[in-house]
Amino acid sequence: MKVLTLKNPGNEPLLLVESVDDPVISSNQILVRVAAVGLCYHDIAVMNGTLTRGVKENVILGHEISGTIVEIGSDIEHLEIGQNIVTSLNAFCGYCEMCMTNRDYRCQNAQGFGHGIDGGFSELIKLAPQHVSVIPESHNLIDACLYACPIGVANEALNLGDSFRIGDTVVIFGVGGGLGIHAAQIALSKGANVISFTSSPNKLDKLEKLSVGQVFLIDDFLNIPELVFALTEDQGAKMVFNPVGSQVFLNSLESLSNRGKMIVTGEVVGKPVNFNLAEIIFRDAQIFGSSGVGTNGIRDAINLVDEKQVTPIVGKQYGFSEISEAYSAVKNKEIVGRAVIIPD
Question: Strand order of the sheet with strand 286-289?
């Protein structure tokens, strides 16, 4: 089979398409033919060398995987050849405290696909049955690679801290990216008043045609907190979804209402933030971090798509041989939604 291997991370990472032996499964494993893999910013961070801790040497990237079961071990009874599946974001043990309390994405023995162990940039991948969720036959298999991340991750984050109520204002930053564009749809489906922001002028036309709320372009002249308060009768946002991190942290904090919540799901530039604690204290504000989703949350994401509350947004598809183009497009914020890698 063909695999796409990261040989050398850096600003211009070296990834090679290689031929390797097909995986051989054990009696309690399944073999999946990969259909599509989302290219997450986590992959970009590994590729450019920003993220190195725990990364396997010569790793096969990709943790947002959809595919079809083509072989089943003799000990497995509840899965069938031909079923379409999506994977969890990590390989979890199933028996630690985190796994036993439905937080398998925080498994104490976890290994991330495309990080600590090889991921989905391959034609075939062998998996334990607990690491896959079956999707309805009617679902688009390419779109399905977005179910765990970004859709499941976004939904998990929006449900933190007693969430928000119908009519509350939710601010979404990075709405042109994978997490933001799906978080905006989820918030709208739950009855929120959504105000979205993007720093990419090239994405505005497409975003304005999608169900992501009111969309505004961040530039040097826009006072974001002032705009949010003006649009909410001086109430502010009940929740701010921040997948960008430090770049918009202060604007996020200053846009919050009394008892508002900021959910931080990403950090793009890796810079420290200085802020006045009074901004939290006198708002009775809360700041949460959120970065994953478990199998229960993946099933919730499948249901959101099945009920047409969320539409997966695949911005562009790339083959293995086009990985350099895909890397540049994501790094330069050219893609609306998620770039997806398809085995050649």
Answer: 214-217, 193-198, 169-172, 237-242, 256-264, 286-289
> Beta partners for 127?
30
pLDDT (tens place) for every residue of the chain, 344 residues total: 999 999 999 999 999 999 999 999 999 999 999 999 999 999 999 999 999 999 999 999 999 999 999 999 999 999 999 999 999 999 999 999 999 998 999 999 999 999 999 999 999 999 999 999 999 999 999 999 999 999 999 999 999 877 799 999 999 999 999 999 999 999 999 999 999 999 999 999 999 999 999 999 999 999 999 999 999 999 999 999 999 999 999 999 999 999 999 999 999 888 899 999 999 999 999 999 999 999 999 999 999 999 999 999 999 999 999 999 999 999 999 999 999 999 98
**Is 181 within 8 Å of 212 (Cβ atoms)?**
yes
Structure tokens, 209: 């045609």
- pTM over 0.70? The answer is yes
Domains of the chain: 2-151+293-342 (3.90.180.10), 161-289 (3.90.180.10)
Regarding beta strands 214-217 and 193-198, do their DSSP bridges make them parallel or antiparallel, or are they unpaired? Answer: parallel
Query: Closest by alpha carbon to 170, among 137, 223, 208, 212?
Result: 212
**Residue 93 β-bridge partners:** none
Contact between 58 and 20 (Cβ < 8 Å): no
Beta carbons within 8 Å of 339's beta carbon, 6+ residues apart: 38, 39, 314, 315, 316, 317, 318, 326, 329, 330
